[in-house]
């Protein structure tokens, strides 16, 4: 039996290209949104339209919008794209594991880049013991539980409607922009701590704290796509487990059902034994090219459906937004 070979450097090129494309897209809409908000704050007519995709950075608004949609049959006109983008992410989880996390989310490539940089600098990655890792992983589910409990159970429908139509919610996107433009010392300290921690511990934000990832992980338990290992072809080299971004024991499982699986293809594309490890759905293998295209297509289709149905752009008059922005913060 020949020893394992190192995966080809181009194996992850597609995912990196998709991630890079989304990062450029986020920078573009962020720039346009900042121009739009600055013009309104100065009581001027914006030279560029508001990019509705910025609503994707309002997941709480999206969760509220989805609840309003399911209960009333109507998509609320304030930040409707937030609900549609969250819906696209949930559909991704149901069809393609946590493909949103590893292919679309802007935090994932930054965390992954810091982790790989730290490993290159120090030669190792610190792995907390299981007795510590398990309760730390539960933190993101506790955060998710808090938001879900408050929004889906504790808030009656009239209160939900009142909040969605409130001035606070109407300019929530601009408030978020101001938060990043003028960050507090506490937030800056948190970023520094998370950045340094990411150099030594593998993906700490995604693994321990992200409630969005926790929600997608729970939905991904029902995913049609799963990593499957063929024991006849497996040479038990352990590369799949060592390359797993989520520290899953891939080599010891026939099917990876865990909510922690990101669908990042690191284990599949790093496997030296042909046919031993594959992403499959309904018994059919899903190549990484098809997987990546499907992730992108889901968001494109949802956004186009929102645009053509008139439920993509927030229906708040510019004069009203400008009025609220003029008030002291």
Short description:
The chain is mainly α and 329 residues long. It contains 16 helices and four strands.
Write the layout of secondary structure elements.
Blueprint: H1 13-41, H2 59-72, H3 80-96, H4 99-104, H5 107-122, H6 130-154, H7 157-164, H8 167-170, H9 172-181, H10 185-200, H11 204-209, H12 211-220, E1 225-229, H13 239-243, E2 255-256, H14 266-270, E3 277-281, E4 284-285, H15 288-309, H16 318-326
Antiparallel strand pairs: 1-2, 1-3, 3-4
Helix pairs in contact: 2-3, 2-6, 2-7, 3-12, 3-15, 5-10, 6-12
Q: Could you characterize the architecture of this molecule?
A:
The chain is mainly α. Helices cover 61% and strands 4% of the residues. It has 16 helices and four strands. It has a four-stranded antiparallel β-sheet with strand order 2-1-3-4. Helix 2 crosses helix 6 and helix 6 crosses helix 12. The longest helix is centred in the N-terminal third of the chain and has 29 residues. The protein is globular, with a radius of gyration of 21 Å.
What is the radius of gyration? Answer: 21 Å
Mean pLDDT: 92
Low-confidence stretches at least 5 residues in length (pLDDT < 50)?
1-9
Number of strands: 4
Widest sheet, order of strands: 2-1-3-4
- Gap between N and C termini: 68 Å
User: Beta-sheet strand percentage?
Assistant: under 5%
Broad structural category: mainly alpha
Kindly state the percentage of residues in helix: 55-70%
For the report, how would you describe the main beta sheet? 4 strands, antiparallel
The oligomeric state is single chain
How many helices?
16
Shape call: globular
């Amino acid at each position: 039996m020949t020893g394992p070979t190192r995966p080809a450097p181009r194996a992850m090129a597609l995912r990196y290209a998709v991630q890079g494309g989304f990062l450029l897209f986020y920078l573009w809409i962020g720039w346009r949104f900042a121009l739009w908000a600055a013009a309104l704050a100065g009581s001027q007519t914006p030279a560029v339209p508001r990019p509705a995709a910025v609503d994707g950075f309002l997941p709480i608004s999206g969760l509220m919008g989805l609840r309003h949609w399911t209960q009333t049959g109507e998509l609320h006109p304030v930040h409707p794209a937030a609900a549609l983008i969250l819906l696209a992410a949930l559909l991704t989880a149901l069809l393609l594991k946590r493909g949103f996390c590893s292919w679309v989310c802007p935090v994932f490539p930054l965390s992954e880049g810091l982790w790989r940089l730290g490993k290159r600098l120090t030669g190792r990655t610190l792995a907390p013991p299981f007795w510590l890792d398990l309760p730390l992983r539960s933190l993101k589910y506790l955060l998710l539980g808090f938001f879900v409990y408050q929004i889906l159970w504790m808030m009656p429908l009239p209160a939900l409607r009142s909040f969605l139509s409130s001035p606070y919610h109407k300019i929530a996107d601009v408030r978020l922009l101001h938060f990043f433009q003028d960050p507090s010392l506490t937030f800056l300290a948190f970023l520094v701590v998370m950045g340094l921690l990411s150099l030594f511990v593998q993906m700490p934000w995604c693994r321990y704290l992200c409630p969005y990832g926790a929600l997608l992980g729970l939905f991904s338990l029902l995913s049609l796509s799963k990593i499957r290992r063929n024991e006849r072809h497996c040479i038990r080299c352990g590369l799949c487990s060592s390359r797993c971004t989520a520290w899953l024991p891939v080599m010891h499982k026939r099917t990876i059902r865990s909510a922690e699986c990101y669908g990042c293809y690191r284990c599949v594309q790093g496997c030296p034994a042909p046919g031993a490890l594959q992403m499959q759905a309904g018994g059919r293998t899903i190549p990484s090219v098809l997987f990546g295209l499907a992730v992108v297509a889901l968001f494109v289709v949802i956004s186009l459906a929102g645009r053509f149905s008139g439920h993509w752009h927030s229906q708040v008059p510019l004069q009203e937004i400008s009025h609220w922005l003029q008030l002291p913060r």
